[in-house]
Fold:
Amino acid sequence: MRKWSITNRWLLSTLGVTVILMLTIVFVSSKAIRDYYYDTAYMTIYSRARSQSINTFFSQYLDAPDDVFSARAGEFIENFTEQSLMEVWVIDRNGNVVATSTGFSVENEIYPDYQAALNSNTGTATWIGETSTGEAIMAVTVLLPSKQGHAVRYIISLQDLNTQHRVFTAIIAVVCTIAVGLVALSGLFFIRSIVKPVKKINETAKRIAAGDFSARLEPHRYNDEIGELVTTFNRMAKEIGEADKLKNDFISTVSHELRTPLTAIKGWGETILELHDSDPNMTKKGLEVIIDESSRLSRMVEDLLDFSRMQSGRMTLRLEKIDVLAELDETVFVFKERALREGVELTYNAPELPAPMMGDPNRIRQVFVNILDNALKYTKQGDKILVTAEILPRRLKILITDTGCGIPPEALPHVKEKFFKANVSVRGSGIGLAVSDEIVRLHKGSLNIGSVLNEGTTVEIILPIDTSPPLNERTSEDEK
Structure:
């Protein structure tokens, strides 16, 4: 398929229309000027030709002999005062020119306007044409009242008018040509100001498509839509580069995270196979490691599946009436043993009251597991983790605070982004917080993170709960 550039399409459309418009202007203007000149010449002749003084002058001699009429015609010509403007002839009843204002005799011939006047009801006719010498003229013939063929013919030369007409037409044509040239130059400059950046954008996009995520566009000189596009394109390229880096880091991290438990499972499986039940304690320890690492792999796979569902908008909740604090109690109980093994003090403080809400218990527990798992991963032996819960009007606030390494200030705004890891040396896929934030959002709650580097991190979870008293309690209070 033939490629049509923006410039070619502009030349074909806008400039083509402009050229057609200018040609139309030249044609219409030329015709209007010509018509104006010819109308002016015609009115000048016609005003003389229809003068009543002509009829008065010849009225007594229309039936006279031809020589008397000819003599009278000579007197009419001598008294004609506008010989510099036009030429006048007197024609007798036989169609012969008997007198002319130029004084030169005229060969008798058929004059179109004279013949037309003879056949006309008005006795007047006009003819525009050229003489035998090639001179352009306008002639008006007026029959005298005798109705015998006597006539006066007025002739005006159109040479000067045609010359002026051509000059004005040429001037208009030159002006229109200059206008088309200016439109073409300004249009080409404007089109190039668009085409050139678009070509650069296209070239840079090809480089990015080829894997060069460092490619950038130079800032546009104008603060217009192209400049905004360049800025947006550079921002997009930056985000693509960052996303590609996060993707590579994620693949590297997940590969490492998968390799570690798989290596442990394979190693202990081979060890147990070689023991042949000769060391029950070692076999038990190996099976415990295999189970723990399998659970770790299972959680990682679930996180990946949840992240995939979150990205495609397919993450759904199975809502039912639950007690959020009961789910938190069970999660903390599970993590107490792990915290004890890792030498971390885990303290739990929550009211002994139910916190009912419509929620997905598995998803809510998944949020608590992710937050506590992160807290343990980013703390070392001797650190502390404090889990507190507070029931507020129609809300439950849960705080999980640790005294671990904390998060750098520049990394804090990004910790809930997909694939982001503030500390790449700590195991993890970098999607747990993103998934947790989405689950809390689907429950119409909020998840906020605050941290001070080298001092610790606090995660705040706010969930909507139903704090109205049960029906039996409300009934009892009403009875009182």
